[in-house]
Specification:
Blueprint (H helix, E strand, L loop, with lengths): L1 H14 L8 H6 L2 H10 L11 E2 L2 E2 L24 E3 L10 E8 L22 H6 L4 H4 L1 E10 L6 H15 L4 E7 L5 H11 L6 E4 L12 H13 L8 E5 L2 E4 L4 E2 L8 E2 L7 E4 L2 E4 L27 E5 L7 H8 L4 E6 L7 H12 L3 E6 L11 H5 L3 E2 L5 H12 L6 H10 L1
Parallel strand pairs: 4-5, 4-6, 6-7, 7-8, 14-15, 15-16, 16-17
Antiparallel strand pairs: 1-2, 3-13, 8-9, 9-12, 10-11, 12-13
Length: about 425
């Protein structure tokens, strides 16, 4: 019975024509639970010369250019400057990439192929996702670990602690060349920045996800996962900190932010631009982060030992008729810091200003950020500087909160430590 199912899955994933609204992967995934181990056990076996499957489309196998790596490499030619050829299958032992899963849309399911919102995480795992991308078996040995399985809108710092430890554990292995993290897009930028500040590795760490559930008519998760693994295999991705990769765009963790609610082109970097892009068979590298990250920060996972969660830091959003009530509520709740998402250059409503002055006098660190998506928040009124308010620079409010939390996780940290961190990281 298992042999029959394995053959059916193999046929559905590799040889069968794409047809109807169900798609080849959707049909095959129904068969996977009973024979997944059998399939994964055959990962090292040679594949028939069929075309790889991504999403609901059969893709033509690209013809390696003359300068491709592996068995087709012409030693007399090299890729153009700034371009990295995506790896093709070779006869050498495959490198290992560890995939750490936290949940999110990429492993979510809808009631129909046209449901693009309101889906949930049910009966779909990261192993099923990787099994649905047979092209992965041609370029790497994939190891999967489920760190969490939640909607990222419900992300917690406890998951961050576990994820940072898992990244460092995987990256410490000599046989692992890189780490890929699957994550929901809602808070991906915050998780990415936290890891960028904390994890101690120079190996590639690539975060990816999806905007459409796995059951959608044009789910992009499988291709995003394939590209993330390819980036993790690229030596050029080393020493660049944590990277966010979706929809052929690669952005450094500090600069990445979600710019679309439902569009697959969900991430960008308003101030810095792309770090790299996937263009056909190439990874085209465009820039590198300039702020210290990963190995070049003093923040380690040991900083969080004994903590159930990071210190309380609240974001207060400025608006017409603001009156400081939310600032007072944050202080009463025990906030160690308040990120004020002001208008313009971090401007503060007159009626809220007194509440922030009072908070600062009580020892609460006040950080001036902006609700404007681009640019930088810098020094402004002398009274704000004299009160110790800290400009957030070009960090958006949610990233400013993460940096303040990481610094204040040290109970001995002062407002001056927070100020220096904003100038440095």
């Amino acid at each position: 019975m298992v042999a029959v199912e394995v053959n059916e899955v193999r046929t559905a994933l590799r040889d069968g024509p794409a047809s109807g609204a169900g798609h080849r992967e959707t049909d095959a995934l129904r068969l996977i639970p009973s024979c997944r181990e059998k399939l994964l056990g055959e990962a090292s076996a040679p594949h028939p010369p069929s075309m790889p499957t991504i999403g609901a489309q059969r893709l033509a196998r690209p013809r390696p250019p003359a300068y491709a790596f592996g068995r087709n490499r012409n030693p007399s030619l090299t890729p153009p400057a700034g371009h990295t050829e995506l790896p093709f299958m070779t006869t050498s032992p495959l490198p290992t990439v560890v995939v750490l899963a936290t949940g999110g849309t990429i492993v979510s399911s809808g009631a129909s192929a046209t449901q693009m919102t309101g889906y949930s995480i049910t009966n779909f795992s990261v192993e099923m996702l990787t099994a649905a991308v047979p092209a992965l078996q041609e370029i790497a040995t994939i190891e999967c670990r489920q760190v969490a399985n939640i909607d990222s809108s419900s992300m917690t710092s406890r998951v961050w602690f576990d994820l940072a430890a898992a990244v460092e554990e995987a990256a410490a292995r000599d046989d692992v060349v890189g780490v890929v993290i699957t994550h929901g897009t809602d808070t991906m930028e915050e998780t990415a920045y936290f890891l960028n500040l904390v994890v101690k590795t120079g190996k590639p760490v690539v975060m990816t996800g999806a905007m459409r559930p796995s059951t959608a008519i044009s789910a992009e998760g499988p291709l995003n996962l394939l590209n993330a693994v390819r980036i993790a295999l690229d030596p050029e991705a080393a020493e660049k900190g944590v990277l966010v990769a979706l929809n052929d765009a690669v952005v450094a963790a500090r600069d990445a932010t979600k710019v679309e609610q439902t569009n697959v082109a969900a991430f960008g970097a308003p101030n810095a631009g792309l770090t790299a892009m996937i263009s056909g068979p190439r990874i085209v590298w465009l820039s590198a982060p300039v702020r210290p990250h990963t190995l070049r920060t003093p923040f380690t996972t040991a900083r969080f030992e004994g903590l159930a969660k990071l210190p309380r830091v609240d974001i207060v959003y400025s608006h017409t008729d603001d009156d400081g009530v939310m600032v007072e509520a944050a202080v009463a709740a025990g906030a160690r810091a308040i990120v004020h998402a002001g208008t313009g250059n971090g401007s503060i409503h007159d009626a809220a200003e007194t509440a922030l002055f009072t908070a600062a006098k009580k020892g609460v660190v006040v950080i001036r950020a902006s609700r404007v998506p681009g640019g930088a928040t810098v020094e402004s009124l002398a009274a704000w500087q004299e009160a110790g308010f800290i400009p957030a620079g070009n960090l958006n409010p949610q990233k400013a909160r993460v940096l303040a939390q990481v610094v204040l996780a040290d109970p001995k940290a002062t407002a001056e430590d927070v100020r220096k961190a904003f100038l440095t990281y």
